[in-house]
Amino acid sequence: xxxxxxxxxxxxxxxxxxxxxxxxxxxxxxxxxxxxxxxxxxxxxxxxxxxxxxxxxxxxxxxxxxxxxxxxxxxxxxxxxxxxxxxxxxxxxxxxxxxxxxxxxxxxxxxxxxxxxxxxxxxxxxxxxxxxxxxxxxxxxxxxxxxxxxxxxxxxxxxxxxxxxxxxxxxxxxxxxxxxxxxxxxxxxxxxxxxxxxxxxxxxxxxxxxxxxxxxxxxxxxxxxxxxxxxxxxxxxxxxxxxxxxxxxxxxxxxxxxxxxxxxxxxxxxxxxxxxxxxxxxxxxxxxxxxxxxxxxxxxxxxxxxxxxxxxxxxxxxxxxxxxxxxxxxxxxxxxxxxxxxxxxxxxxxxxxxxxxxxxxxxxxxxxxxxxxxxxxxxxxxxxxxxxxxxxxxxxxxxxxxxxxxxxxxxxxxxxxxxxxxxxxxxxxxxxxxxxxxxxxxxxxxxxxxxxxxxxxxxxxxxxxxxxxxxxxxxxxxxxxx
Length: 482
What we know:
Blueprint (H helix, E strand, L loop, with lengths): L2 H10 L11 E3 L19 E3 L19 E3 L19 E3 L19 E3 L8 H4 L10 E3 L10 H5 L7 E3 L12 H8 L5 E2 L2 E2 L2 H54 L10 H12 L12 H7 L18 H7 L16 E7 L2 E7 L1 H25 L9 H16 L5 H26 L5 H16 L10 H19 L1
């Protein structure tokens, strides 16, 4: 850990080249065996020395402003030489070789101590935490603590809010471990892997005073308190509805309130009155409701509207038939259609009842159908002669002309006409007599003149007539020469 190497690390970590200006430096997993050459880094507030081979805490005298010191995963066997760090807030010495907590004197601002995976065993090994009275977070999990007396040491920390004792042999030795720790540590808000809520604290305090009965009484009180709050909210909602209804009637005086039958209002009030009962009320059966309010029920479904009846009137009047008991309701049962008040209702029935109901219906439906099917021949004679003739005509026509879409057919016909015209011209050229050398010379000269004028000879022109004219002119020239 030399000065040039520390400056190089500061440069790599985008720090300052002036050592005193750096407030954090990462020296973890570098393989250092000793803490040294940090005197010029007097402005450090956070120092990371995790994962090295450090065996002793030393040479931190000039780091007066250091607040966070991380020394986990080293070879430290004792906490020492840090009492001058007056503003130290967090100390992590987990995964080391520490057997006893010492050296925390004068650390009046230390609030977090993590000392997991070490070799703490007895209550005396843990008693050194009392030198830091402001300790709030303590993690001593994965140690060798096995004495229940550690509870007396921990409860002496007045500000302990977070405690982790998991994976220590002492935990199963303390009866009612969670209740006991919560009752002893008054400021505890988080124990092991679960938070400590206000309800749990009240229950634990009642348990500490009156045992299990006291805790049950506290649970009942909390339950009643929740019901009371819910009822108050319900009443507040009802008052809000009443105020809204009164305001609506003031703004719209012609509007009338909906009216309900008196028995229905009594039934509604009875149901609402049961809300105030703290004990759970079993739901009344339909038969009980019908027996208590017989005036609510009629058989006219069309009257099931407010003011002239209710849907419950017909439902209660319908008599549910008694079903035969069966051993297994999932075997040997099929749906059956039963008519109640001229309306089909599906219910479960036995196979015998299904057979009795369906047999006359099957006979009534199947007899005409069987007669109609058997009265007609199974196979009718069919004459295939017209069909064969039609197929032959189609085949002959397809042989003569291959099917094409209309656009392709027109294009093919146009190409065919052009090909026939070109063939006829070739035949005419073959039938024409051969030209002499003079005629060929005259023809070449004439074609050259025509090309110079920018015109072209059209394809298919009557070349024979033109050749005859040229031959006559040549003959006349020869006669003049003679």
